[in-house]
Amino acid sequence: MSEAQRTDEIQGEILHVYDDIEEADNNLPVWWLLTFYGAIAFGLVYWFYYHEYGIGKLQPQKYADAVAAAEAERSIVTDESLQALVDDAGTVAAGQEIFTAQCVACHDTKGQGREGLGPNLTDKYWIHGGAPTDIHAIVTNGVAAKGMPPWAPILGEQGVKEVVAYVLTLRNTEVPGKAPEGEPWEPGGAAGAADAAQTADTE
Amino acid sequence: METQRIVYNDKVVRQFIWASVLFGVIGMLVGVIVALQLAFWPANLPPLLTFGRLRPLHTNAVIFAFVGNMLFGGIYYSTQRLVKARLASDILSAIHFWGWQLIIISAVVTLPLGITTAKEYAELEWPIDLAILFIWVVFAVNFFWMLANRREKHLYVAIWFYIATIITVAVLHIVNSFEVPVTAFKSYSLFAGVQDALVQWWYGHNAVAFFLTTPILGIMYYFLPKAAERPVFSYRLSIVHFWGLVFIYIWAGPHHLLYTALPDWAQTLGMIFSLMLWAPSWGGMLNGLLTLRGAWDKLRADPVLKFFAAGVTFYGMSTFEGPLLSIKSVSGLAHYTDWIIAHVHGGGLGWNGFMAAGMFYWAVPRLYGTKLHSRGAANFHFWIGTIGILLYIVSMWVAGITQGLMWRAVSETGGLLYPNFVETLLAIQPMYWTRLVGGLLYLSGFVLLAWNLILTAKSGAAVDGEIEVPVATEPRGSEVPWPKLLFGQPIIASIVVMGLLFGMVLFDGLVSTVLAIVALMWGVAAVAISIRDRNSEKVSWHRALEGRAGIFTVLVTIGILVGGIAEIIPMVVSVPETIRTTKNVPYSPLELEGRDVFIREGCYTCHSQMIRPFTWESARYGEVSSIEDSIFDHPFQWGSRRIGPDLARLGGKYADVWHYKHMLDPREISPGSNMPPYPHLAKSTIDFSNTPSKLRAMRNVGVPYRPEQIQTAEEEARATAAGIAAGLAENARVTTCEEPGDGCELMVNSELVALIAYLQRLGRVPEPESLAAAETEEAAR
To answer: Which of A169, A162, A163, A131 is nearest to A148 (CA)?
Structure first.
């Protein structure tokens, strides 16, 4: 390296030379320095805002708030309110759409069930009770032991009601498929009413 | 004046360049294959050639084989000339070259075999980790010995970057490879869950920083002014951005873990240091581009300068995109999507690939005493390469943002608008094909480069560079004593500022604020003093430092250690407490075996196990993940990409039959899925006699298995497997068997059964009853 021998017409004075590579020494661009200092200042402010003084809410807190708000808004369903939805063609159609997208993997296209997976929904036998609120509870919370996932988070409150309305239309259509499982359920049956009251409570 | 002739060791440079070209083509070819596998699942050829096994091969090949060989060649070529000394030892140089190629070949063999640690870009198993360490030490000795022999007192900026590379990669590799061997080709990470995640991404992020960035910046500082024949823009910009990168980069790792179970303070550090990194990164880009002042007209004809100018520009783009993606809310959208894939390929193809091409086109003719065979072909390579990159990154931007938005879209009914994950995959399928075209174009350009370079070499003959230097060195002038350098004004100021900022940990609110303000004022004063001193006649502190390679190296080492220590130590301290208090329990023997199958198949390359605190995320996958969920995971499996859905709470979501059918043929259960089929797992059995040693290894890394659990591990695993198989036989009429034979559909002791056991455990802690029973049993003994 030999020290400063020349001045380049564009880069200015040459400070050092290494293996014929010349090194000039221009000022740092001001906008560049500002982005550097700005980022450092932002970092400090951010740290104080969220961590030292806790003025801003971090995501876990925001999430907890959102969950609490959703919980507060949840409405109550009854056998009657669910059964009434069956008469609404729009609701049933929406439910069928959900069923086709989500349920056929285990319950097959007409609700006749699949071997080793979901039960037949078209007979009068129900494993977890056949009252509308029973079905609503199963769709909402799932049955972990049987591999049925909870659908409320995925479908939303309204979506669950729609698909329950559709499933209620499948009842007793007797599509040949998976063999009956569980207990027979009749509207107004004693067992059904008792279960319905219980599940409505747990809602 | 008496002179002596130095002949540079350019043989090893040529070797590294050819190896880089060869492995560049191979690594990019594997990249094209894995891209095809995502667009077209039948391109998976199980068991060896599935996406999960080939993706690590692609990343390792392009990072360590292609860029690795390129940077060794570039460092050796430039440093010999910058310090006017031949590489210290021909034997070490040869060991370095051949050793590195052996490591690459061992990676090519072991990764498709499923021998992997499942830590991204550090997948190679422990014997190869040791080999890497050995070769890296050889490299370091060879390099620093050459510096000791130097005939140029001061170190040019390129060499600063090389020093940072050698030191930091060694530290990263050693710490991230802390693992306990189980067998010759299997080990478990020493770190647990959240620790492992933090250490891995401290490594992963800084592998990008100190393997793919700093050495290439050094190469830029040598080859770009050489090719442009123009002076480097600014020495003082070099100083500021060099130390900025060295100090700040190391802190930024946690930006890979935003919104995960990593503690919030560490996430915030990752984010704000990433933002601070923007300017130092752009300092490198500016020094490169502004060096081209007065040479822009040469770009029209010269392919070398085209590659360099575009490469540096892509560097600027990637280092803007990086801080952007590190902003928490942006990460919330982009994390786990193809946006990240776009980002790394902007850097990989644009910066690394183009800088390599520029360096090769410039150096190979000189190393063979001839002219480049075809300038036209090189220019053509530049254009198809550029179009390839643009197709690649634009398609992945579109894919990433599309998928990210679909994941969080909420329907009118209040549920997820796209509850079926496959929908979000099918939506980006056209982008996968577009990316494939982009990748193919880029690969074609590189094949063209290989052809061009081979014909160039054939038209000349290998020549080694030489230089005439005076024998008698001038008498050593009075050196600045080392304490003056080590405790120079900038160092004292840094210590004070850092001390004050670290002091903020100890105090809350007002005192913290005062500390921060004092730190800020001290920093400003230090900058002002150094600006004042710059105009004085005496040799500056930094200039004196550049003459002292040893002290320079010590300061770089301290600079890179601060951030790592500050982030990793608290996690090392806090995790044992979590293990003591958690309600989670270690995996059962069969689940552990299943987990090893999961790791071997590289499932983590497509599936995350980390549910972030967003309502749309918990709606899809279940309760938000906590530190405890993965506290017994060695290695952690949080993942970095969701080509398939998150699996953190998969356990119990579907029946065993569902998993059985899904693994045999994913599309039967999930139409449109691009997951490879794994029917062979039903037939390959696990040797449970190794299971106790696996539990023992886990115990050695801190998982609280009880001694009798280890003793009975084999029987327990067999019993659990028999239970699952019996369930499948009963519920789905699967023909199970103990011995292979006609009509056997599922071996009882198969990997598939173990995998199902593991998948059904994810996110679930076994019932307390069985725990209580186990404890009474223990008490009874």
So the answer is: A163
